């Protein structure tokens, strides 16, 4: 036997990946057009965006920054240390590239501090410009002459405005024959002029190169603040170091015009190179100026030392130095040269540093040390004769002055040559080239992402639609999600729908206000009338004879129209065949039940419980079983309609003692099938069903009949069904295809569990068949209340 475990009724997903994948494929197949429609819309939107979005191009150049040459702080390296400058890091060079000194010349070169553009109608202006030729303005569409519709030619060479008008959009209106007028944002006229001539007035100067437009066409002109324009270009520059500590800098700039951004990128690179060259030449120029200022003084010292030596030689004649005097001359000469070089280096450092700086104090310390060593050296030669010492000193001074002067003269010439060819410590590796393809938007990536997102969105919407809107309609899904055995899937019957539609139409036509005359029964369909004619007469007699005075405590039940019993009128209908399969499956499910009572319930109204109960009871009776069909819906019971009987004298009267079992359990015309109608609608149906009389009556019915089928109210609407399910030996949950969400089914099963019902399985009812053999969905209105008005219930 296949039973349902009441301890586990939550909707759970089993860990079977194959089942999940099959469920996904089934979901897509069921709603393939919805999935394709959403995916197509997303893909179309991505294609349109990729084609219509503004194309952004990028141009880039490569710069290399070389580390500066460094050397010891000595007299021999003084020139190198002065011309090389201090060490520069790459991040410092990046900031220099973005500086105003580099960017501002480019802003001026490309006139990036002002803009001029036509007043164009959105969308329509771009469309009309497709049919225009340059220099031949298009006629105004719809009489809107202020807009530029294509073919206009307009360019501005320069514009200067007062500080108050910087950043303000000014309007230039063409007057015809190259003339124009310029107004501010409040419509006040600033100046008038002619293309090709500088116009000046009210502090504004404007030079329009070319103006070809219809009279009345408007253009916009805006002069930006110089600092804002420089910062705008600097902010748009992309300057990064390629790698780490490589000294390779990538300079890039993006824009809509590939030629313009290429030219701007190269201009920024050249401006940076020029700035670095001027900086390096500036250092060399300062050094050269210092050396040129020292040369006259050294030349005078050389002349004085040479003159003093000549006069001494003329006075004493020729002199032949001794060996000791030669040592004194050579040693003193070396000391003097070192001291002279340190003094020159000190003077060079004073060009950039103060006397208290560490660099200058280091030179001062070296000078002091050399002076002390020179003094000690001269102490060793005090024993020399005075004439000999004087001759050696004069020769030493002349020699030192000559060597220093020649060395400084050579340095001056070298520095002049170096400054002429100096380019700084940076150079351009690669200039920017004209880009061939835009970097934004990436059409291939956008369209690919659109395809993926479109499919995901389509599947997601289909999933949400089935989960939250269309409800459960697949028997396999219901079994897997709720672990509820599905005994059958009953397709919708076209014949039943047609008959119910005609019945509902005739009822509304006869009684427009929705009321029904008590005791009045409409004419029966052909064939059915003959079947139920003797039973109607007997029922009317029994009902009129057995209605005691106690019936005053009960709300009278109205009579109802006749619905066809499909198992009799169309025994070979698809729905009837499905019910036969349900009958066979249900027989096995009832083997181990404690009694022979089967309760049929559903989550909400209009799920087809009455249709299933009536036709299934008839099919069980045809198989030779003695079947009792009970309409336990004491609020809106309609089972009597399927047998052409009045609902009076039914279960309500039986439980309140107004009729006995022989009167309540009436024959139906189907061999082996008896029926108890709902009876009058009581004001307290739940209290009546919880009485001991109801449970005792069901026990007697179970003993007298082979099968007792009880049609109950909806579970989620009222508590009556849970009461009946607790007594019944088996409960079957009827689920209308596509009418209930997973949450509603879960709540129904939880309610049955709390009632300790023995839920053996479920039935998916009213499944619309599609041409691909899958299941469609249906909607329902969830409402249940006391009513005597017959709703238009189909199956």
Overview features:
elongated; 47% helix; eight-stranded mixed sheet; alpha/beta; 4 domains; five-stranded antiparallel sheet; 795 residues; disordered C terminus; 15% strand; disordered N terminus; 24 helices
Provide an overview of this structure.
The protein is of the alpha/beta class. It has 4 domains: 27-53 and 445-468, no CATH class; 57-72 and 89-256, no CATH class; 276-425, no CATH class; 487-511 and 521-767, Rossmann fold (3-Layer(aba) Sandwich). It has an 8-stranded mixed beta sheet with strand order 13-20-19-14-18-15-17-16, sandwiched between helices. The chain is elongated.
The helix content is 40-55%
**Shape by Cα distribution:** elongated
Low-confidence spans? 1-15, 70-88, 508-560, 771-794
**Strand order in space, largest sheet:** 13-20-19-14-18-15-17-16
Number of helical regions = 24
Query: How far from one another are the termini?
Result: 28 Å
Give the total of domains.
4
CATH 4th-level superfamily of the largest domain: P-loop containing nucleotide triphosphate hydrolases
Strand segment count: 20
> Whole-number radius of gyration?
54 Å
CATH topology (level 3) name of the largest domain: Rossmann fold
Report the structural category.
alpha/beta
How large is the share of residues in beta strands? Answer: 15-25%
CATH architecture annotation of the largest domain:
3-Layer(aba) Sandwich
Mean pLDDT: 78
Question: Sheet with the most strands?
Answer: 8 strands, mixed
């Amino acid at each position: 036997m296949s039973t349902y475990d009441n301890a586990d009724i939550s909707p759970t997903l089993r860990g079977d990946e194959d089942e999940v994948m099959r469920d996904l494929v089934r979901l897509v197949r069921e709603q393939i057009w919805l999935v394709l429609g959403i995916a197509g819309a997303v893909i179309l939107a991505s294609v349109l965006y990729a084609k219509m979005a503004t194309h952004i191009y990028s141009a880039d150049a490569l710069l290399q920054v070389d580390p500066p040459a460094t050397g010891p702080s000595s007299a021999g390296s003084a020139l190198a240390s002065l011309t090389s400058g201090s060490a520069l890091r790459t991040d410092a060079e990046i900031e220099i590239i973005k500086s105003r000194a580099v960017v501002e010349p480019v802003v001026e070169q490309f006139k990036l501090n002002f803009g001029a553009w036509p007043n164009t109608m959105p969308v329509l202006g771009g469309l009309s410009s497709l049919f225009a030729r340059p220099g031949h303005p298009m006629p105004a569409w719809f009489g809107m002459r202020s807009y530029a519709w294509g073919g206009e030619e307009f360019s501005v060479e320069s514009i200067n405005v007062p500080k108050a008008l910087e950043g303000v959009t000014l309007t230039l209106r063409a007057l015809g024959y190259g003339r124009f007028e310029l107004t501010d944002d409040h419509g006040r006229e600033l100046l008038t002029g002619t293309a090709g001539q500088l116009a000046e007035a009210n502090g504004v100067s404007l030079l329009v190169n070319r103006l070809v437009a219809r009279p009345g066409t408007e253009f916009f002109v805006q002069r930006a603040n110089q600092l804002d324009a420089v910062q705008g270009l600097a902010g748009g520059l992309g300057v990064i170091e390629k790698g780490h500590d490589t000294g390779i800098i990538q300079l890039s700039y993006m824009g809509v015009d590939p030629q313009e951004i290429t030219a701007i990128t190269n201009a920024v690179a050249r401006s940076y190179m020029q700035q670095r060259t001027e900086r390096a030449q500036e250092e060399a120029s300062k050094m050269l100026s210092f050396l040129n200022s020292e040369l006259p003084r050294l030349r005078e010292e050389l002349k004085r030392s040479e003159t003093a030596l000549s006069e001494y030689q003329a006075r004493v004649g020729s002199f032949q130095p001794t060996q000791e005097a030669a040592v004194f001359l050579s040693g003193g000469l070396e000391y003097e040269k070192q001291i002279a070089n340190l003094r020159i280096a000190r003077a060079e450092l004073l060009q950039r540093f103060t006397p208290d700086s560490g660099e200058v104090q280091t030179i001062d310390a070296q000078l002091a040390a050399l002076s002390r060593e020179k003094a000690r050296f001269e102490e060793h030669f005090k024993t020399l004769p005075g004439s000999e010492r004087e001759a050696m000193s004069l020769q030493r001074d002349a020699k030192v002055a000559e060597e220093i002067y020649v060395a400084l003269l050579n340095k001056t010439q070298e520095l002049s040559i170096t400054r002429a060819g100096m380019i700084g410590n940076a150079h351009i590796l690669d200039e920017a080239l004209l880009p061939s393809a835009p970097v934004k938007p990436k059409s291939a990536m956008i369209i690919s992402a659109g395809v993926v997102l479109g499919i995901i969105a389509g599947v997601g919407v289909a999933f949400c639609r089935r989960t939250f809107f269309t409800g459960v309609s697949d028997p396999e899904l219901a079994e897997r999600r709720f672990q509820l055995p599905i005994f059958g899937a009953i397709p919708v019957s076209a014949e039943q729908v047609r008959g119910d539609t005609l019945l509902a139409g005739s009822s509304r036509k006869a009684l427009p206000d929705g009321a029904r005359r008590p005791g009045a029964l409409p004419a029966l369909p052909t064939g059915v009338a003959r079947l139920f004619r003797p039973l109607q007469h007997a029922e009317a007699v029994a009902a009129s004879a057995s209605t005691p005075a106690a019936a005053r405590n009960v709300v009278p039940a109205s009579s109802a129209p006749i619905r066809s019993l499909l198992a009799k009128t169309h025994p070979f209908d698809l729905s009837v065949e499905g019910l036969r399969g349900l009958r066979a499956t249900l027989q096995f499910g009832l083997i181990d039940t404690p009694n022979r009572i089967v309760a049929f319930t559903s989550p909400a109204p209009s799920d087809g419980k009455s249709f299933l109960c009536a036709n299934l009871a008839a099919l069980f009776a045809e198989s030779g079983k003695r079947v009792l069909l009970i309409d336990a819906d004491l609020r809106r019971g309609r089972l009597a309609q399927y047998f052409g009987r009045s609902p009076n004298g039914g279960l309500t009267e039986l439980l309140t003692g107004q009729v006995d079992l022989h009167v309540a359990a009436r024959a139906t015309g189907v061999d082996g099938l008896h029926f108890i109608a709902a009876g009058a609608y009581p004001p307290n149906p739940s209290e009546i069903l919880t009485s001991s009389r109801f449970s005792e009556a069901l026990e007697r019915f179970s003993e007298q009949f082979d099968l007792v089928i009880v049609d109950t109210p909806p579970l989620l609407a009222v508590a009556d069904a849970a009461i009946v399910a607790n007594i019944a030996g088996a409960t079957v949950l009827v689920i209308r295809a596509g009418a209930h969400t997973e949450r509603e089914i879960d709540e129904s099963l939880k309610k049955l569990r709390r009632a300790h019902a023995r839920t053996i399985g479920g039935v998916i009812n009213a499944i619309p068949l599609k041409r691909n053999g899958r299941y469609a969905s249906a909607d329902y209105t969830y409402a249940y209340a006391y009513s005597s008005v017959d709703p238009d219930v189909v199956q």
